[in-house]
Amino acid sequence: MRIVNVVGARPNFMKIAPLIQEYRKHPTEFEPALVHTGQHYDDNMSKLFFEQLHLPKPDVHLGVGSGTHSEQTAKIMIEMERLLLSAPADLVVVVGDVNSTMPAAIVAAKLCIPVAHVEAGLRSFDRTMPEEINRLVTDAVSDYCFTTSPDADENLLREGVPAEKIFFVGNVMIDTLLGLKEASRQSDIGRRLGLNGEFGFVTLHRPSNVDLKETFEEILSALDALQRELPLVFPVHPRTVNRLKQFGHWDELQGWPNLKLVEPVGYLDSVWLMSNAKVVLTDSGGMQEETTVLGIPCLTIRENTERPITISEGTNTLVGTNREKIVSEANRVLAGHGKKGRVPKFWDGKAAERIVNCLLEHRPKK
Ligand code: UD1
């Protein structure tokens, strides 16, 4: 089985790594190739993750870089088509919901190459979110919908996806987390940042939070109130740096005494920060899941989530973007009333194994 595995943006790397390891256990069955679209290209958004996740160098780098949604999507489609026409594949595997996921899936489907979507069926029901469009389109053209939770299966069935295409396998991102949790203990980020007590861990990069000045300022004012009580570590995504500068807050934030603004951190540092934080405040999708498994209270700075199981079973709480709500929920956590939660079914480190077994059992047919 010649499998083309497509990645492009930071959260893709943790999802593909366990699959690449799993294919290697069946060298006579699988011939995997790794394609990097180049959506993320900074060393600390890409190369560092390849190193820490022990990913092989990509076989092909499409070098598409940044751009508008249409530019990025179109460039990836053109390059993917060229690639798949020159090196035929039996299956294309795409992961997650970023701008690299959808175009790769469309191109493969149009060339009649079976498509597997890992992390299928998640829905925020918010079509202003670019990822929601990517999820809907990708699932619509996929032949294998590998899901992380029963709500995803239900979403797909409701949209008319035949049950034979849906496989509840668990969460590959958690395979990576459990595999590298021990190694993350060696991270020296706490020492480097001079953390010697309780702290909060903050990440923000969603367009709905950082692209609108008013919303972003409301969130920043909540962070200002919080950093007066608890040191906050905030690795700043490139999109967020751009907005902070554009809205004239970059210099001001450097002056907040208890806020540690740092460059985006690697995977091991991120897991260390999550594991040791008193509270995590984020708009990331993956961190809602990772904190659930680590048992750390997560306050999600969004009005909705495509990962409701992290709320119903895990440690996640949606707090929206209102200053008072964010501060009061954070104070609840600091007072010891954070959610404890339990680990969802199949978030056990064996999702990639289930996917590979499924592919062996239900071989792709052209
Ligand atoms: C993308 C994903 C989002 C994911 C996030 C993780 C989409 C639609 N969104 O958002 O789901 O949570 O990645 O980080 O695919 N930039 C750099 N260096 C880089 C990459 C980006 O400076 O290596 C800057 C560029 O100015 C770029 C901007 O960040 O225009 C946004 O990058 P982009 O890939 O378009 O989206 P993200 O916001 O990173």
User: What is the overall pLDDT average?
Assistant: 97
CATH fold-level name of the largest domain: Rossmann fold
Order of helical and strand elements:
EHEHEHEHEHEHEHHEHHEHHEHEHEHEHH
The low-confidence parts are none
Kindly report how far apart the N and C termini lie: 12 Å
Helix content class: 40-55%
Topology, number of strands: 13
Tally the helices: 17
Measured on Cα atoms, how large is the radius of gyration? 20 Å
- How would you sum up the major sheet? 7 strands, parallel
Within CATH, the superfamily of the largest domain carries the name: Glycogen Phosphorylase B
Integer tally of domains: 2
Overall geometry comes to globular
Q: Which small compounds were modeled alongside the protein?
A: uridine-diphosphate-N-acetylglucosamine
Q: Tell me the β content.
A: 5-15%
Q: What is the SS-derived class?
A: alpha/beta
CATH architectural type of the largest domain: 3-Layer(aba) Sandwich
| The first-level CATH class name of the largest domain | Alpha Beta
Core attributes:
366 residues, alpha/beta, Rossmann fold, 2 domains, seven-stranded parallel sheet, six-stranded parallel sheet, 17 helices, globular, binds uridine-diphosphate-N-acetylglucosamine
